[in-house]
Q: What sequence folds into this?
């Protein structure tokens, strides 16, 4: 399945978001006003013998009238709630004005009023729910877009690569080539097609490092991004660090590896397509569940660069230990000790627990990823186990190469395919949780604060300051308009806004 997203999505992000937020709030306000006015109207018209008498009840005080009114209203509303079948006997007024007209013209009694009021409120509740769901869809679709300024930067850099010899210069310079495989250095891997995101990761990691001269960054990108990515890092060196940029088209893999990668990507596309078709016909009762299902709309669910992390040993055959970083993170503290960390014979080091304590991982239990109604899943895994986090991971590639992790990953992909895609939702993490089972070394939660790309995340400021790495996992990346405005500054402060290309493309932060 190929997904084409127009850049117009980006242009209309703000308008869509304003419209989607205002509509539910307006409906909720109308809901409360409508209910109050309906009750007061009934009080004023249904039981008052005259307008003068109503005024006397309201301001002078009465005994039997209001009490009787309250009892009758309560009985009518209970009857309306308990007798669903009678709804069909009553038409739903098209507007509040029509309901008022029916009451004042004495064409309906209190029972009919109660049923019609109930039906109008139910209709309004449905509209509020539908508006929230549409707003969620728009919000997730907005995560596909990139600002026009990012496209502008990529085009300018591609032109620079063609016209300027400096932009085509060797990366890294010839005198640093030996560092690319030196086991004594700190090797960092990024798989990304986002130039500025890669720049922020490298800049923040370098500024935070106690030994920046030991850092070696390996960027793997796709063919279309290779030239502008190369031009950027050739023209914008960062301190004394070494940066390598390599395109996927420059790898000479075996025929067998190519077949397995193509099969992997095709199955992930089929999973994404199946889940997308499923949510189109769903009418979910709980917004949280709906939000979880909408993760199928994330662009990384079918991204080759996102799924290629399971082939890190093949991507870097000369390396034994690496630190893998996602491109939507910011490094805030020195990471040097991670390269000296003893993984105790395990393959991957990752954060499991959240900052709230041991076995605390809201939204990251296995039953948040897997379908435990399937006997294969329920018999193999514990539903309340915490899933570990991608984003900042230490990988011992030397140990990985003597395991069957990648083979197990493919085995479960095929099993999900054969089962009708019912074992898990889209994404690279669920099959990785299975494949790396028994090969995990847990890191302290201090290393990784995730979830800053979700709307529902509530993170204390001290947690953000204290975390070694903050991760904008979720749709709301800091470079998008849907990103949290109070957090975007954390990301943009690592961009050189005085750079000519950045300035001319209107990237302001």
A:
């Amino acid at each position: 399945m190929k997904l084409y997203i127009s850049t117009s999505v980006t242009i209309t992000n703000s308008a869509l978001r304003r419209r989607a937020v205002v509509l539910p709030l307006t409906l909720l306000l109308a809901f409360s006003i409508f209910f109050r006015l309906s009750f007061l109207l009934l009080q004023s018209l249904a039981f008052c013998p005259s307008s003068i008498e109503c005024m006397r009840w309201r301001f002078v005080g009465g005994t039997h009238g209001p009490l009787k009114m309250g009892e009758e209203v309560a009985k009518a509303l209970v009857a309306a709630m308990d007798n669903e079948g009678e709804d069909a006997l009553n038409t739903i007024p098209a507007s509040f004005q029509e309901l008022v007209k029916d009451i004042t013209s004495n064409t309906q009694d209190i029972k009919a009023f109660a049923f019609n009021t109930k039906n109008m409120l139910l209709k309004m509740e449905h509209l509020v729910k539908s508006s929230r769901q549409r707003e969620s869809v728009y919000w997730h679709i907005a995560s596909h877009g990139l600002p026009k300024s990012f496209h502008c930067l990529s085009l300018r850099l591609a032109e620079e690569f063609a016209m300027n010899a400096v932009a085509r210069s060797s990366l890294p310079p010839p005198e640093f080539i030996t560092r690319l495989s030196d086991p004594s250095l700190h090797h960092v891997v990024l798989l990304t097609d986002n130039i500025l995101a890669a720049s922020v990761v490298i800049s923040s990691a370098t500024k935070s490092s106690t030994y920046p001269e030991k850092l070696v960054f390996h960027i793997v990108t796709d063919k279309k991004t290779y030239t502008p990515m190369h031009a950027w890092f050739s023209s914008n060196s960062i301190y004394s660090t070494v940066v390598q940029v390599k395109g996927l088209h420059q790898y000479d893999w075996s025929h067998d590896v190519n077949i397995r990668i193509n099969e992997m990507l095709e199955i992930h596309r089929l999973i994404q397509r199946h889940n997308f078709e499923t949510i189109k016909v769903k009418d979910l009762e709980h917004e949280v569940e709906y939000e979880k299902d909408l993760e199928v709309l994330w662009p990384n669910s079918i991204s080759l660069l996102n799924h290629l992390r399971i082939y890190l040993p093949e991507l870097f055959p000369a390396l034994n230990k690496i630190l893998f970083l996602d491109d939507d993170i910011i490094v805030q503290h020195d990471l040097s000790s991670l390269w000296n960390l003893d993984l105790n014979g395990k393959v991957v080091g990752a954060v499991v627990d959240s900052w709230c304590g041991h076995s605390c991982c809201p939204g990251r239990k296995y039953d948040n990823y897997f379908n435990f109604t399937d006997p294969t899943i329920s018999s193999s895994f514990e539903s309340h186990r915490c899933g570990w986090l991608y984003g900042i991971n230490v990988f011992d590639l030397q140990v990985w190469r003597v395991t069957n992790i990648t083979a197990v990953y493919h085995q479960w992909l095929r099993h999900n395919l054969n089962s009708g895609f019912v074992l898990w939702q889209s994404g690279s993490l669920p099959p990785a949780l299975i494949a790396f089972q028994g090969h995990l070394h847990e890191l302290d939660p201090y290393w990784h604060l995730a979830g800053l790309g979700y709307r529902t995340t509530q993170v204390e400021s001290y947690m953000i300051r204290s975390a070694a790495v903050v991760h904008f996992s979720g749709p709301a990346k800091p470079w998008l308009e849907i990103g949290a405005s109070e957090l975007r500054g954390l990301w943009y402060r690592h961009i050189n806004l005085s750079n000519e290309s950045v300035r001319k493309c209107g990237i302001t932060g």
